Please model this.
Amino acid sequence: MMARTRSSSSRLRYCNPSYYLKRPKRLALLFIAFVCVTLVVWDRQTLLREHEEEVSKLNEQLHHLKGLVEDSENVQEVVPDDPIDIQRREKVKEAMIHAWSSYEKYAWGQDELQPQTKNGVNSFGGLGATLVDSLDTLYIMGLHEQFQKAREWVANSLDFNKDYEASVFETTIRVVGGLLSAYDLSEDKVFLDKARDIADRLLPAWDTPSGIPYNIINLAHGRPHNPSWTGGQSILADSGTEQVEFIALSQRTGDPKYQQKAENVIVQLNKTFPDDGLLPIYIDPERGTSAYSVTTFGAMGDSFYEYLLKVWIQGNRTTAVKPYRDMWEKSMKGLLSLIRKTTPSSFTYICEKNGRSLTNKMDELACFAPGMLALGSSGYGPDDSKKFLSLAEELAWTCYNFYQSTPTKLAGENYFFRAGEDLSVGTSWNILRPETIESLFYLWRLTGNKTYQEWGWNIFQAFEKNSRVESGYVGLKDVNTGDKDNMMQSFFLAETLKYLYLLFSPTSVISLDEWVFNTEAHPLRIVARHNEANSGRANGDDRPKIRLRGRKEGRSRD
Model:
């Protein structure tokens, strides 16, 4: 730039009329004056062209900073670490150590631990699901010895060449997501290489006439297909919940094929996206159109809507990812049409829809929605932002009462709402789900209201009282009686304990300005997207510099 400035000054010297006062050739003076003006104009145009992209990027950053300033109006100032928070955080960390050491002792390298019988089971084909799911939790909690031992297992023993019919969705959110998060946190390339290996085995699932993926694939032989119980249809959540992971993988590897496959799904769905943004849970993989079925923010629908928002956040809210935000806002208009209140206590809940009929039922899985609404509220104008944040708080109160309304203070799988009776538990098991705690985490980070920490602590104490056993943690067969099952779900370590730990951690720990969580609570670095070709690895210039205070389907595992 300095060289260009000196060059410009040199040219301007010839534009000074006094330079020619002692020269009688006026024609030459006019000619040189013309040349001088031409050179100045040319010089300015060249500078403008060279800096056009820089100006565009600065404008996007300015837009983002304006949003952050608006967000900060409702945010409390960062305060020193509360002694109570420290104590509670350590209790959650001790729970993680208890869960992990039990897995390490009785089920090392297997998918999940059965604590009552003290043995491991391979519920996901022997991919070490609990180990991979727990990597980032171990890292975040500072359990470095345990993390290093798990890292060695990944490097030396994790083998994906399994003759196993894997769920594309489950394998993506747990294994691809878990490995990518471990890579982003530790910068250890072994995790990236493994993530690429498993993703390559999943990719043929997208080779359908419409680009909507089949939901099952054999990890060794391919042969993708859909489960028989769907009648050949693909599941909405299963097909629309790989974008965050596959975009991140393309960015880290520089290979666009993962991002292209996953994003094409959204492109296809957007072609016939309804005005209310609500899609049934089944999609025809041949035509790419919705099949008649239930519409829900619970099982088999939930994380599709979550990822519309999170891809926008993952891309740092730039114009390149605005179509995701637009689709998400349509869906939130649809969500408003499903909102009802109970009597007599006015609990706010989300109905399910079948055709034109509404069912007064809500899954605990749908309790991710308060956190999603809170996270997305900042992208609206002031009035809508306040409206959606208020709705998030109302729904969180309902979800908390899913827990408080049972004898064990643990939530059932779903709830029904009847006039004059408020809410009653339907399916009464509890399998250590994280969704309500996830929403409490977001609401605390985004509002600073410590009430959400208190609610989370009460839920943690209920887990300690009812689910902790000698060799880990188990779910309950019935939240009314407290009868225990024999499974420590991998997501209990990946999600439930991680969100509890972060609920009592400083807001700088996994800042929401720098990280986005996948649906299995695996944090991935935010990378600004400026165009569709952007697939470079994250670097310091891509990440925001300002810090603020900061679902799964109805499957057998969860």
